[in-house]
# Entry
Amino acid sequence: MKNLKRIIVYLILIASLLLIAVNVFIGSCMGDKYSIDSKKIETEIKSKKRILYVYEFDSLTRKMEYELEIKVIDSMTIYKYHNRIDSTKNISFRLNKAKSDLYFVFDKFNVTDFNYYQTTSFKFDKYEMSDPVVDGVSPILFNKNYGILAWDNGWGNQFYFVADEINDEIMLPILWPRH
# Structure
C-alpha cells in the first residue's frame, strides 16, 4: 500500500512538472510571436522640419524651429513636435485612426468640417473640442499625413506649424478673425 501511494505521488509530481514544462514552452513560443507582432505594430516613424509661427490676434510675435516626429503605433498615430532649443516647449497630439478623433493633452477633438483649408499638396480638416469650453483650444486644422497646421488657444493666440513645402502657399494668419 505504501508503494502504491509513493507511485501515485511520483506520477502526480511528474505530471505537474510536465504541465509546467508545456506551459513554459507554449509561453516562450507565444512570447516570440508577440514580440514579432509588436515590431509590426510600430510600423512607421517619420521626422520632418516645421516652423512654428505664433500670432497674437493678427500680429506675428514668435517664430521657433521644431522637428515633427510621426509615430504610428497600432490604431494610434502620435504627432510629437520637438522644439529644437527648449524641450519644455514640446507638444504632442494623438490621432485615433479608427474613430478619427484627435487628442491634445486631455481634450478630445472631432472633425467638424472636412477639407476646411487646402494647399496644393494637403487638405486640412477642421477639428473642434468635443466638450467645448469658453477659453479652450479650438479649432485645430489637421491632416493625417502633414500633422497639425494650425490651432487657436482661445485667448487670441494662434499657432501655425508650417513646412517648407507649403510655406509659399499660405497667408498667415489663417484663423483670424476667430469664427
